[in-house]
Design goal:
Layout (H helix, E strand, L loop, with lengths): L2 E5 L8 H14 L4 E5 L5 H5 L11 H5 L5 H4 L1 E2 L5 E4 L5 H8 L8 H9 L6 E5 L6 H9 L2 E6 L5 H18 L5 E9 L4 H14 L3 E7 L3 H4 L7 H4 L4 H16 L1
Helix pairs in contact: 1-12, 6-7
């Protein structure tokens, strides 16, 4: 059975792409077949997998418009069991065009359904930092929403906003959607970070992943070599923490 996970936060710079890439690498290490889907016009996940967005002839945009299947636009990576559906800046225009199409919010779900359940064990959707058409498609298709969040002052406001969104989506269109919160870019030396983490742990309970992803410079280096951190720097703290997150997901499911 395929588990579809959207990774989203309205705020940028919270390690959405890093989470997709690193979690995908961790799950593939555990002999799961994983499809990464880049829904962000910035195409950082595509770049991280060693693809040049400007040179791509087919992207997620073609699949969303119905001009190609997701399988036909997907690419194998150098990591066994880890594939990607790439994107490029054309998604900026597509988001406006797609909104005018009938049942636009189900385009991604329909595309994933056509692959067939079980072809991939996990599909990870890297969403843009906005609540537009592309993110809505991800939420319609997902079983689980992972919200990466930093231990900072504005985190609670962002989280409240997303909880309301999930509740609305569950009520109106996707009753199976659940969400969990992942603390990223954590700095254990920072007193404010420690205090906010304690508040989150008390307030969120089981909604908060036990795994905490700390700051690690290797996260910035690994995309340069077109590899998740689990392949680029397998013994680092960051790699171990994303492996722990993958184990949590497998046990949670």
């Amino acid at each position: 059975m395929t588990t579809i996970i959207a990774v989203s936060n309205q705020k940028g710079g919270v390690a959405k792409t890093t989470t997709c890439l690193s979690l995908g690498g961790s799950l593939s290490e555990m002999e799961r077949f994983v499809l990464l889907v880049d829904l962000d016009p910035q195409a950082n996940l595509t770049l991280s997998m060693g693809l040049s967005p400007r040179k791509l002839h087919r992207t997620i945009g073609d699949a969303l418009l119905g001009n190609a299947s997701l399988v036909s636009v997907s690419r194998e990576s150098s990591i066994r069991g880890l594939d990607i559906v790439p994107s490029n800046q054309e998604l900026i225009v597509l988001e406006k065009v797609l909104h005018e199409r009938q049942d636009f919010q189900y385009r991604l779900k329909n595309g994933l359904d056509s692959i067939g359940d079980g072809f991939y064990d996990f599909v990870l959707l890297d969403c843009p930092p906005s609540l537009g058409t592309l993110t809505l498609n991800a939420l319609m298709a997902a079983d689980l929403l992972i919200i990466p969040i930093q231990c900072e002052y504005y985190a609670a406001h962002t989280l409240r906003h997303y909880v309301k969104l999930v509740q609305h989506v569950r009520k109106k269109t996707n009753s199976r959607l659940t969400f969990r919160v992942l603390v990223t870019m954590y700095d254990r030396r920072n007193r404010i970070c420690r205090a906010i983490l304690g508040q989150m742990q008390q307030a969120l309970g089981d909604i908060l992943f036990e795994t905490i992803v700390e700051i690690d410079t290797k996260f910035r280096e690994s995309p340069v070599f077109s590899q998740p951190i689990t392949a680029y720097a397998p013994t680092t703290r960051g790699a171990q923490q994303y492996r722990a997150l993958a184990r949590e997901l497998l046990n949670y499911g």
